[in-house]
Amino acid sequence: MNYAAPWWLPGGHLQTIVAAKVGRRYRLHSPVYQRERWLSPDIDFVDLDWQHAKSATNPPLLVLFHGLEGSSRSHYAESFADYASAHALDYVVVHFRGCSGELNRAPRAYHSGDYEEIDWILKRLRSSRTGPILAVGISLGGNAVLRWAEEAGSLARQTVSAVASVCAPIDLAASGTAIGAGFNRQVYTRMFLHSMKPKAMRKLAQFPGLFNGSAVCAAQDLYAFDNAFTAPVHGFETTDRYWREASAKPHLHRIRLPALVINAKNDPFVPAHSLPAGPIKGDWVTLWQPSEGGHVGFPDGLPPGNLFVLPEAVGDWLLQNH
Q: Which of 78, 98, 148, 303 would you call most buried, defined as having the most Cβ atoms within 10 angstroms of its Cβ?
């Protein structure tokens, strides 16, 4: 991927924040989604937002798994919707539980290693389609998609033709440390906890005793929040164990389908020193590590910038490698 940040956007923080807040996401109009609700195996629900190709028969399906506290209205989701529309692809954004605007029903939420959730979603999508399925995960969703590919191994290609991970914290401990310090702690951590804490407390009202509510309220960083909520609710003893077992980086060599892993080296959330270096064992994983881009940013052009570079690069790679 050849990306050079515009002169007026120096540094990973600006490239991240401007993209998320004011970057131009689509060329003509905001995507119009059709929502579908699926009943999950544990009698919960998952909401999917669809955009169907207008003039194609049995087109490829582009599936997007969003990042932490994201949705189909996140800046990257709408920019990928624009790409799908321009290339006559069916497109669907899968909402992790609790991220579609309604609290989910089960005593769980979602997490960075939620590959079993992704497995049943992708297999259900495959059961109703005959064309290629291309999966892209953003940030947290990117790590989870890679964990699915790693666990599925040689069976993954029976379900999906190719996958892409965008700006994923594939070393969760390194990213957790980075987001919990300095400017990141004051800006990004506060933003995430502002939405995550109330959701967690509504979950506790649904299921009294599920976790320690006082510890959640006292959490000042993602490490403490994961220790109080994410880890115990999803079967991990501690944050350290959760981050270790959910990280995709140690298992990339197990992937057996075309996989793109893209991380900007100036991503505020994902330290450059934590990224995989050199070739991954095997021929399946492609690493793109541009020097700039920020966290799911890659804005281009004059102010306020457009967000077309990232979906075009990732989408074109998926279409060429499936």
A: 148
Which residue from 17, 44, 46, 6 is spatially nearest to 268, judged by alpha carbons? Answer: 17
The answer to whether residue 139 is catalytic is yes
Separation of alpha carbons 79 and 171, rounded Å: 26
**In the annotation, is 154 catalytic?**
no
Residue 37 has a pLDDT of 98
**Alpha helix ranges (H) inside 34-161:** 75-86, 115-127, 140-152
Global pTM value: 0.97
Rounded to an integer, what distance in angstroms lies between the CA atom of residue 8 and that of residue 14? 9
pLDDT at 281 over 80: no
d(CA 169, CA 247): 8
139-155 per-position pLDDT tens digit: 999 999 999 999 999 99
Q: Residue 300: phi, psi to the nearest 5?
A: -140, 155
Residue 56 has pLDDT above 90, yes or no: no
Tell me whether residue 322 is one of the annotated catalytic residues: no
Only one residue has tokens 């949705």, namely: 71
In single-letter form, the type of residue at position 284 comes to W
Out of 85, 139, 175, 274, the active site residue is: 139
What ranges do the domains of the chain cover? 12-171+248-321, 176-246
Catalytic site residue from 79, 267, 274, 300: 267
β-strands 34-39, 259-262: how paired? unpaired
Q: How far is CA 27 from the centre of its chain?
A: 23
Write the CA distances from 252 to 60, 240, 285, integer angstroms.
25, 20, 7
For tokens 């920020």, name the residue.
Answer: 294
Catalytic annotation, pick one of 13, 75, 111, 295: 295
3-class SS of residue 43: coil
pLDDT tens sequence across 196-217 = 999 999 999 999 999 999 999 9
| Token pair in block for residue 94 | 């899968």
* One CATH from 3.40.630.30, 3.40.50.720, 3.30.300.30, 3.40.50.1820 for 12-171+248-321: 3.40.50.1820
User: How many CB atoms sit inside 10 A of residue 104's CB?
Assistant: 23
